[in-house]
Amino acid sequence: MKSLLGEFIGTYIMLALGLVSSVIVNYFLFPKHQNRFLTGFYWGLSILIPSFITTIFFGTAGFNPVVSLTLAVSGKISFWIFVGEVITQIFGAWLASLTVKLVWSKWLRSLPLNLNFYATVPRNINNWRANFGWEIFGTFLIVVNTQTSSNLQSPWWIKTIWSSILMTIIISVIAPITGAAFNPTRDIIPRFFFSRTYDKRLSQWKYSIVPLLGPIIGGILGIIFSFFL
After folding, report:
1. CA 198 → CA 12, 40, 117, distances in Å?
2. How many angstroms separate the Cα of 15 from the Cα of each of 44, 45, 149, 185?
């Protein structure tokens, strides 16, 4: 129960910090185009902060159903804990979407309506094959890091900082291409919130299969690779 509460709080804090605000801050600093390094750095911090909080108080720092899946497959958590973590992550993502809407409502009204405030938006929505491959590759690296770092005899805070730095690098590279989900909950729930709250026609639901299945396949490949490694 303690770990489930940690997953809920961690997901909420991560997305409450990352959604909308990352795009708005980027927009005001770089109004002509999004800066990939600022996006990566901002999301790296958005992951680092809740990871420290939930590790200290709840002993968990996942916030990603793909990571929860890898832990379940490797026997580190039970199937029912995995299901519980996914459910709490979904609720945390929805509450975070609602929170950022309330916090940034004034700014959102002054800017053109954009799905990128909530969900991932690719540079080329029609290039599904490349986008799918990049989502798989990014999630693969994240899962391999999670699996290998769990076997290293290093303080948890060093592992947490390194994982956040790795996320910063991966997002900086891939965000301009796919929007960089690597986490189905991070994309699908805010996309659904955007669809229900703003405009379903702008929600790009046909593309959502990429940030949904890409991370799952990347996670499975990461588990297989880590097993043989």
Report:
1. 21, 26, 11
2. 12, 11, 24, 10
Structural contact between residues 190 and 15, judged by C-beta atoms closer than 8 angstroms: yes
Question: Based on C-alpha coordinates, what's the Rg of the chain?
Answer: 17
Q: pTM of this prediction? A: 0.91
CA 22 to chain centre: 13
Task: Give the tokens for residue 46.
Answer: 């958005």
Rounded-to-integer distance, Cα 123 and Cα 39, Å: 15
158: exposed, middle or buried (C-beta count within 10 Å: 0-12, 13-18, 19+)?
exposed
Q: Residue 157 CA to chain centroid, in angstroms?
A: 20
CA 32 to chain centre: 25
Helix axes 184-197, 65-73, angle to 10 degrees: 150
Q: What span, in angstroms and rounded, lies between the C-alpha atoms of 152 and 157?
A: 12
pLDDT digit string (tens) for 109-144? Answer: 888 888 999 999 998 888 889 999 999 999 999 999
The helix, strand and coil proportions of the chain, stated in percent and rounded to the nearest 5, come to 75, 0, 25
CA distance 215 to 64: 10
Is residue 184 within 8 Å of 65, Cβ to Cβ? Answer: yes
The one-letter code for the residue type at 15 is: L
